[in-house]
Amino acid sequence: MVAPNPISSSPTQSKSKDSFRLQQWIEKYADLSYDLCESVLWSPSTANVVFKQTLQTWKSLAKNGEAFAKHERAFVLSNTVSILIPFAEKHGRKLNPSEQLMLDANYSPKERVDFLDSYLHRLSPRDQILLLLFYRYQLPSSEISTILREPEKSLELHCTQILESLRSWIWETSV
Amino acid sequence: MMDCASIFSLPPENKNRERHLATCSACQRKHSQYQLIVSKIRQTPKKKPRFSVTDYVEKQGLGQTLKSRVQDWTLQLKVDKWSRVPLILRTSLEVIAISTLALTALSAVPRIKEYVEEKSKQNLSQELALIDSYEEPSPDFPASLFRKRTTPEPTGESLENAPVSEAEELNAAADQDEFQDDAALAEEGSNSDSATTSGGASTLTQEVWRFNLKTGTPRETSQEVETLLKKQGARNTSNPQAQPQGLRVPGGIQFDLIVPSDQILQVKNLLQALVETDEQASESRTNSEARVETGRTHFTWYRSPAKKRIPAGYSRVVIWLSQI
Question: pTM for this structure?
């Protein structure tokens, strides 16, 4: 049995392959990608915008998807992150001063932990994504380093620093 | 002993880290706080898109519908089947198919040509048969055979006052035909004896006679011509019931008439005589002046076959009274 040569395949065949790959991506990573968008952006409507934009770029990426078959998830998510970070920096919801005051007004750290989402949004979008990828989705650090284009070791250190800053906001500033 | 600051940068499975955490209460507390944060992050419910992603993708044409996927699959199967046929058999079949198509096309061209020619011949013979079966119209001048004027027939008085443009409109169609006739006449004028200034004329069944009269007083001459034509039984081409009347156009007056064929020669002679008498009168009037028109005649006539149908026994006569 001779393996099919990808170069000699007809345009219709390659087109169908691309669309099939796109369908697979959607089935596997659409929910993950959307959750990441909404967690960072903190708004379903803006998350929809970014997610739809991401789907559009996936279509063009599906043509080169074969080359990244082994690191498919990292490839797809790095694209999502590259769209999400600039959008979140520009249009992402940030805590206003009154909300920050309200957060700091909570006396006990237990109550503050309940508002962890708000504390998370004090972080930069990149830091939020790092925490989510590390702890929520529990991706291997090699994949996260590919997605965020940062060395693994520095990512781990960075992650510890973020946790420390969160811990300090919750426990050390309490009255 | 490990430093408390760097303990958490170590991987969780590191033994030194475990050992330090077991001994250092501050780091233990920190670690438990980190664990609380991490567990809180993990516990947050996962969000899902509030629209159907597959519907959106199909609507936007990003992916393929199931139907198109099946179609692609069947097409792929067909192509694969054909490509599996042995090369010699496949190429020979393709060559035979292409050559058969080419030969069929080549052989079809002359046959189509023959068919078209035959068809055109049939049409031509049908038209000729139709022309042969055409019957001559009855000579009792049915008005419907003739061109109908939408404008009222100009009277003598209105003729004088009529603006030139209106007269032009009335006569435009007739003039066009006449100019065509004149052009045809000019072609045959060199070798035929039909265009002459004098001499005998033989009558034809369907013919147009043109008389050109040059006169210094066309309006007076036209009245004389009218009386002359009435006697000869001439009628207007456009309105056979009306008396013959001239139409004033720029440069002169025109009569477009139908005259019995046997009266044509008489009409011609009378018109010629009319012009001669007019010439004599003008000579006597301007005796002292040298005659400019010396060597030229003031009466010419032409005869040509008619293009339009004329009732049997009649000929069309066009008289043109031009101003000298």
Answer: 0.46
